[in-house]
Amino acid sequence: MTPPRVLTIAGSDSGGGAGLQADLRTLFACGVHGTTAVTAITVQNSLGVTGFVEIPPEVVAAQIVAVVTDIGVGAAKTGMLASAGIIEAVADACDQVHIGRSGAIPFVVDPVAASMHGDQLLTDQALEAVRTLLFPRATLVTPNLDEVRLLTGIDVLDRPRQRDAAKALFDLGPRWVLVKGGHMWSDPECLDLLFDGEDFLELPGPRYDTKHTHGSGDTLASSISSRLARGEDVPTAVRFGKDFVVRSVAASYPLGAGVGPVSPLWRLEQA
Ligand SMILES: Nc1ncnc2c1ncn2[C@@H]1O[C@H](COP(=O)(O)OP(=O)(O)O)[C@@H](O)[C@H]1O
Ligand SMILES: Cc1ncc(COP(=O)(O)O)c(N)n1
User: Which residues are in the Pyridoxamine kinase/Phosphomethylpyrimidine kinase domain (predicted)?
Assistant: First the structure.
């Protein structure tokens, strides 16, 4: 039987820890078929990103239309989008194939702006395109606290500010906001906060004492997307994703001389 399909619109991480490699590993472990629209090829290892080339915007758009019109899609997610030109092309292609709020297909926007080493993965000019073109189309946005600061100017250091940030992000137009708490270093629970414009859902978890968390954001957004593709509602899918990423962090491993990846494959090892 054909499994549900999830499209990831993301960059390649040559080190295999984050980006579309992390997405595909997660989607595989979650039992869905992953398709890709590659946006950029990064030169990356466990020590950081030393460069990238962008895929031409029209080729990114063509990949989206080609896979969705033939293979179909139950949910789509974004990762690294690199430039305003690529974001514009993604927005147009998503409208064309009914991905996002105006269509029927759930759309998870992970507004990746930098790698965990601080290397820029999105131009400054592209932030405005994320705000105006992507957020209003998103079913769910999943920024980390650095991305929250870039997008809203709010510096989240505690839980009350995390709520303020969720409200400011909601005002940019997504249906749901998930403010991730991995970078709230004072919080021993890594609290992720889900907001629908009215109610907050707090998702606490353990904070593991490891530096090997490369790809955690991609793993979270992909595991959530795998459940949205099965028709689950957003809170149910987000609860699944939080549990999934926590277990993936617990299974992370050292790689190279720097930061190692989380491992979504814990799920297969348990099967
Ligand atoms: N050390 C950790 N232990 C457990 N969960 C973590 C840890 N670091 C991050 N997480 C979880 O991984 C997910 C991604 O976290 P975060 O670091 O905030 O985003 P990003 O990976 O995009 O920078 C969130 O659900 C967060 O709570
Ligand atoms: C191609 C690509 N996409 C996304 C990330 C972010 O992942 P992380 O925050 O773990 O560095 C990355 N480093 N590379």
Answer: 13-262
